[in-house]
Amino acid sequence: MASRISELVIDAADPERLAGFWSEVLGYVEFEREDDGSIAIGPAGVGFGGPSPVLVISPSDDPRRGKLRLHIDVSPTDRDQEAELARLLALGAKPVDVGQTGDESWQVLADPEGNEFCLLRERIRPVAANPPAPWTVRPETAADVPGVRAVEVAAFPTPLEADLVDALRADPDAWIPGLSLVAEAPDGTVVAHALLTRCHIGEEPALCLAPVAVLPAHQRTGAGSAVIRAALDAARALGEHAVTVLGHPEYYPRFGFTRASAHGVLPAFEVPDEAMMVLGLDAGRPLPTGRIRYAAPFGT
Question: Is the pTM of this model over 0.90?
């Protein structure tokens, strides 16, 4: 056996911008944000450990610019070098003069933060064109109840979240059919779960996103993001609008959540202001204002 290159880390003054650039260059998607503000991007539906290395764009107050001791070479897959060069320049890459004669088989470019990389002439086959996700996302069924509990127990240090899900499922004022979403592996194992239940903002009905859980072995694959997006899509299809979440302020904004206090939405108990967030599913409707009131099983 041998080691494999699993991650390449790039320091950046603006990780958001640089992650967006390299996502477009490589056809990657964002699948994780770290506590320090790093953004991990990789092939859709694969994530860490797949055939292609993950790029981690890490915030830095003093990122190196120009020629790095280790730099990235990219090769076109579905077009010739000239056409790919035009695409990269349109994305924001800049040509770099390193004394080329014009006869080289490579083009030297710089990304939006000045990191140099090369576009090679030879085309290669893509690893996979639109690789399928290693799981299927769908609404929970009665047969999934043990699997959902297993995910919650494995993902959290205590069974409190698993007990909460069971209590919410038994509460007709909280449970909304179709808004408990699971990701199922090919062998039938439930690997991720996201739940939306009824809450209120002031006197207006809203939804609470909690909990979200992923089996440890399937974390950093995009499964958690997939079940969250599916849950939000299902809520939108039901005509729901306001969704609240108490969670990591570096993670949930990717789904459209913003600071709740900026919209006049107040938490039910004292929490860090940036951790309480809200999302409107219908851009044509204002968000309700007032204090969040959770379903009884939350115990608030």
Answer: no
